[in-house]
Amino acid sequence: MNWRAIGVWMGLLSIHSGLLAEVPPDAKFFASGTVEYRPGNLPLVIAAPHGGRLVPAEIPDRVEGVLTRDAETDLLAIEVAEAIYRRTGLRPHLVLCHLHRRKVDCNRDALVGTGGNPRALETWRAFHDIIDEARTAAGRGLFLDLHGHSHPEARVEIGYLLDAKQLREEGADFNALAQVSSVASLAGTSPVSFEELIRGKSSLGALLHGGGFPAVPSPEFPDPGEEPFFRGGYNTARYRTGGTGDAFFSLQIECPKPGVRDTEENRRRFAKALATSLEAWLLRHAGIRLVNEEARPESRGSE
Ligand SMILES: [Zn+2]
């Protein structure tokens, strides 16, 4: 661990009000402070690969791919973890890349994501090693990759590795897509059809919509129509497993900025809705109970 670099990082971070004060004592930093891991005790791993703010001059800017960061998704991921803690009394594993996307992209393969730079590669490796360890510690569960989009429609886009064309399929043709989706390992355990799991009344999109955040796919928006849509990227594909056995499944959640990640109040509101939705979705489709009733702080009246 490079303590001098961490000192520089802390200094830079303190510019962003509120974040520094909230770093918990058990947070761990890797790759010269560019990757942060907040350990959890739930079968849920949340990562924010594109929220990084650090732009050290000694790492050259990448020349290939998207270089803009997903603004405030670092803060949003922290809020989501806190909202889950407030509901359940337990914590998801949280993995944050603090290096700006100009320097590294942890949602691409190593070569595209780092341009071959050894310092960027150190960050990339640390980010993925931590996710691997957290998944192993959690056993069966959900990997959630949190992002921000700037598409014209301010809807939450849920990436199951199904593109717009696949989402326009229906019935048996749609259900046949289960094994190529990011939730292949859930398709066998969920008590409902694949179509219901992805965009029925008990889908994550329906639950988010019910919480005040329109989402696609959902009963309201079964497919993206003519709008641009992110199907899920490198991490969503990397951290899914097909079939039975080591049954980790994955989701990419792409958040619009207006009303979701633009202000602290909106981030908090969305985080609460996502925490509530995930709790119901995981129980219904995976049989995973996030809530420990005795530990739930909300039941003790402390918000
Ligand atoms: Zn992103």
Structure description:
- The chain has twelve helices and eight strands.
- The model is unreliable at 14-18 (pLDDT under 50).
- 48% of the residues are buried.
- Strand 3, helix 2 and strand 4 form a beta-alpha-beta unit.
- It has an eight-stranded mixed sheet, with helices on both faces.
- It has two domains: 1-139, no CATH class; 140-291, no CATH class.
- The longest helix is centred in the last third of the chain and has 23 residues, at 264-286.
- Helix 2 (73-88) packs across helix 12.
- It is α/β, with parallel strands linked by helices.
- It has helices at 3-13, 73-88, 110-114, 118-138, 164-167, 171-175, 184-187, 194-199, 204-210, 234-238, 257-261, 264-286, and strands spanning 28-30, 35-38, 44-48, 93-97, 141-148, 156-159, 215-216, 248-255.
Descriptive terms for the model:
8-stranded mixed β-sheet; 2 domains; single chain; 303 residues
Low-confidence stretches: 14-18
Q: Report the β-strand fraction as a percent range.
A: 5-15%
Order of strands, widest sheet: 1-2-4-3-5-8-6-7
Shape: globular
Integer tally of domains:
2
- Tell me the number of strands: 8
Terminal CA distance reads: 36 Å
Radius of gyration, whole Å: 19 Å
- How many separate helices? 12
Bound ligands, each once: zinc ion
| Mean pLDDT across every amino acid position | 90
- Counting helices, strands and paired strands, the structural category is alpha/beta
| Biggest pleated-sheet summary | 8 strands, mixed
Q: Secondary-structure element order, as H and E?
A: HEEEHEHHEEHHHHHEHEHH
Instruction: Kindly state the percentage of residues in helix.
Output: 25-40%
